[in-house]
Design brief:
287 residues; alpha/beta; Rossmann fold; five-stranded parallel sheet; 5 strands; 11% strand
Length: 287
């Protein structure tokens, strides 16, 4: 039986990862796992320093991740958040709007998740749903779509002028790589949960999504809230590039932490607290 690989290292039928396929086609050389993990750890340490600075200064930051389906948004967000506090780095991935939310002002359900002082909010998909899936799949009217593109820059200027740092990333995956990732999701039970009802139609409507992307970027790539485009055919490189770029955008400083000394266990109220647990319902130790 072939040994299972981590989800990050999706492979084709010949067992080649995206990075290896890219190298075969004359692209960048494969980034080895050891080199990737070493650099990721260094960058994640910097994210921890950023976290301390945001908490200390009370800064408010929003990071928006958009892109085609299977572009690698989820893996990039996990790379950012896996070593930091979820109380500082808050992830927001909203489901489809309810009937009540549909009757509200469009951005209202997103505003409820905006950061307070000392928070970084990451939107895995955002108000830009209206410029993408809602427009392409017919979930909004042409007038609603047009009004969104007209009003979005002014809305984001209001956000930025209010003291929030707004960072927007678009992850761009190529045709061949998206196809490969979708096929991997279909065949692998560990990845089938990633397939949403919108994934297969998005594959069929490739060019409709391209046109929607271009119109969105033309209308909302502003001086106060620019789009940052990320090549994401190579997942590992994309993750490192995003984190490095994000860190470079924020003028954070290392906050000196007080020296920590682990105290000795107090003998006060001492008793045999092990024997009292012996008759409790422990789970079977199969491993």
């Amino acid at each position: 039986m072939k040994k299972a690989n981590k989800a990050d290292d999706e492979q084709d039928e010949a067992g080649r990862t995206a990075e290896e396929l890219q190298a075969e086609e004359g692209g960048q050389a494969k980034l080895g796992r050891r080199d990737y993990e070493k650099e990721l750890r260094r960058l994640q340490a910097e994210l921890c320093y950023l976290q301390d600075w945001v908490k200390e200064t009370g800064k408010r930051i929003i990071v928006v991740f958009e892109g085609r389906d299977a572009a690698g948004k989820g893996g990039t967000i996990r790379a950012i958040t896996e070593r930091v506090s979820p109380r500082i780095f808050r992830l927001v991935a909203l489901p489809a709007p309810s009937d009540r939310e549909k009757s509200q002002m469009y951005v209202q359900r997103y505003l409820a998740h905006f950061p307070a002082a000392g928070e970084i909010v990451i939107f895995d998909r955002s108000w830009y749903n209206r410029a993408g899936v809602e427009h392409v799949m017919g979930f909004c009217t042409k007038e609603q779509y047009k009004r969104f593109l007209q009003n979005c820059p002014a809305f984001e200027k209001y956000v930025v002028d209010g003291g929030i740092t707004l960072v927007k990333y678009w992850l761009e995956v190529g045709n061949k790589e998206q196809k490969r990732r979708f096929e991997a999701r279909i065949d692998d039970p560990l990845r089938q949960w990633k397939l949403s009802p919108m994934d297969l139609p998005s594959r069929e409507k490739w060019y409709e999504y391209s046109l929607a992307r271009d119109a969105m970027l033309d209308a909302t790539d502003t001086a106060w809230a620019p789009w940052h485009i990320v090549r994401s055919d190579d997942k590992k490189r994309a993750r490192l590039n995003v984190i490095s770029h994000f860190l470079g955008l924020i003028p954070y400083e290392r906050i000196k932490r007080p020296e920590v000394k682990l105290p000795n266990r107090s003998k006060k109220h001492a008793y045999d607290d092990i024997v009292t647990m012996e008759t409790r319902s422990w789970i079977p130790e199969k491993y």
